[in-house]
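User: Here's a chain of 120 residues. Predict its fold as tokens.
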Amino acid sequence: DLVWIRASLAAAPPWRLNQVADATAFDAMTEPPHPDQDADQFWAWIDQQAGTVRARVFAARYGVPEDEACGSASMLLAAQLGCAITIKHGSGSLVQASPAPNGMADLGGRVVWDHERAVD
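Assistant: Prediction complete.
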């Protein structure tokens, strides 16, 4: 089933959101274009009218070379764009996000257990 959360945008890490002109360029990316882009989401419209976006998040600053389905960056992007979006993330994840009232955002998707990771 779909799982939805509502969270405060103020609690999200300070992701830099970088719009890219062409969504097809994402598949060839293995790392960010510049080493200092260590907490960055790269995104492009697939279909702006439908609200479909392609995105990749590189998070070396947080000990994760690439976040396959970054919920907090997805929520920030939806809030920045001011509309509900469906994000084709990483190599195969599908995330939905939309702005919500009072500095919040909604995030949803189908969840599959991958592995457990300790948070320091």
